[in-house]
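User: Is it possible to get a 3D structure for a protein together with its bound compound? The compound here is NAP. I've pasted both below.
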Amino acid sequence: MNCEGLIDLVIVGGGPAGLTAGIYAMRAALHTVLLERSAPGGQVNLSEAVENWPGEPHIGGGELAAKMLEHARTYGLEIRSEEVVAVEPGLECHTVRLAGGEAIRTHAVILATGGSPRKLGIPGELEYYGKGVSYCAVCDGFFFRGKTVAVVGGGDSAVEESLYLAKLARQVYLVHRRDQLRASMILQQRARAECKIAFVWNSLVTGIRADAGGVQAVEIENRLSGDRQVLAVDGLFVFIGFEPNNALVPAGVRMNAEGYVITDETCATNLPGIYAVGDLRAKYARQIVIAAADGCTAALAAAHYVESRKAAGVCAVPPPDGGGKLR
Ligand code: NAP
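Assistant: Yes, that's possible. Here is the predicted structure of the complex:
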């Protein structure tokens, strides 16, 4: 086979899972490239504060992401700001295609593409995105100082972001489709103790009323009584979970009904040399610490996989340029 330009590992995605995979891959001396289309750090960048990263009782999301990036860079990890358009599995090696037309051939691929906010799917939601509708309190909360906002959802994100918004806004309505929150107990207790947060139970946001100035109100329906009300708000924040970013998952890789990639305990997919980590992977809980653990596991497994291929004689000799740069 043609070994020229073949590298050991491509990591697609630079959130906690991808960056941790990068750290472990570099420590395992794998020739690794990490590709990230936007800012490294992923969703952590969007968190005001992280309080469950061991050793850091309270750290800004952006600060934690920056520390992870810096840590990965200390090992010399090559991080490229590139959009991946396809991951093509092969029998001899895998190919990662970039938007600019470049193709990177690699023994192994770790998919760390994370997830995106789930949408409510109501009329006006996309039209008024950025004009009152938001999926990120840290990014947009500033615009709602002294105003009234509605937050949809009952999980950790909705409650955490409601608490953040309560520091800025005059009033926060937390609209949840049941009468029990899914969020962790510590967040629930804080939210219940916050006088600016009012709970709207068993309710769905069914419509958005807006004008040229942006969102003016939301229409709400009680799921039990069928009663409808219009709540005057300046903003609507939606935190109803995430959907896996699985567009780059190659055909043939097994996924569950929700579109999460099914792996074994080493984060290996059913295709040899292709791994899935972090929020893309089907698993019990989605936490930063678990994403990082996935990245570690997959990198160790990928190192073993690459070593076994080389031991079997597949491109054991480094390319003439020393296994170096792709650019
Ligand atoms: P989540 O835990 O899946 O919660 C989504 C919430 O939205 C649920 O309360 C759900 O209601 C509601 N919901 C779903 N679809 C809806 C719809 N169409 N209309 C109205 N409501 C809807 O999502 P998340 O809060 O974004 O959290 C995602 C993961 O990240 C979780 O594993 C979470 O623990 C983790 N996370 C952790 C932290 C932290 O540890 N500090 C912070 C943020 C996120 P039901 O309850 O009725 O299903």
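The chain has six helices and 19 strands. The radius of gyration is 22 Å.
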